[in-house]
Amino acid sequence: MTTQEDINMLTNMVELATKELITMQNILISMTKILIQQKDGQGENALGKNALTVEEKAKLLEEGICPDCDSKTFDRGPEGGLSTNIRCVDCGSKFNVCPPYFAERI
Predict the structure, then answer these.
(1) Which of 6, 56, 73, 91 could form a disulfide with 67 if both were Cys (CB 3.0 to 4.6 A apart)?
(2) How much is the pTM?
(3) Is 36 found in the same domain as 54?
(4) d(Cα 54, Cα 104) in Å, to the nearest integer?
(5) What is the pLDDT of residues 61-70, one digit of tens each?
(6) What are the two backbone dihedrals, phi and then psi, of residue 78, each rounded to the nearest 5 degrees?
(7) Structural domain of residue 105, as residue ranges?
């Protein structure tokens, strides 16, 4: 026989799993949009001459190095969802990052 506590526990587990699935779905949608932009030629350079190149994004996301001055020291700024704004302490360059998915200059 199932108790009310068991039902409540299962309900909470289902709610948590649903929230995690929605988060992952949103990440996949964002990644798909980026891939479509790149395929259509609207990717990196569509943001202007100050947009990060693929190499600069990799340097920032994978190595944690500022693409402008090679510093590894960043101040964290506002966060929202999965992304965080960061500022290079040495040169002042600002980026919005969501490792390992994307990085953009702000």
Answers:
(1) 56
(2) 0.54
(3) no
(4) 10
(5) 888 999 999 9
(6) -60, 150
(7) 44-106
Q: What is d(CA 62, CA 93) in angstroms, rounded to the nearest whole number?
A: 17
Tokens in use for 15? 């709610």
Share of the chain above pLDDT 90, in %: 35
Q: Structurally, how many domains does the chain consist of?
A: 2
Going through the chain in order, the beta strands assigned E by DSSP cover 74-80, 83-88, 94-98, 102-105
Instruction: Say whether both 6 and 29 belong to one domain.
Output: yes
Mean pLDDT of 12-18: 92
Mind listing the pLDDT tens digit for each residue in 35-49?
Answer: 666 655 544 444 455
65 and 104 belong to one structural domain: yes
What is the distance between the alpha carbons of residues 64 and 2, in angstroms, rounded to a whole number? 51
The token pair at 17 is 């799993």
Alpha-carbon span 3 to 30, nearest angstrom: 41
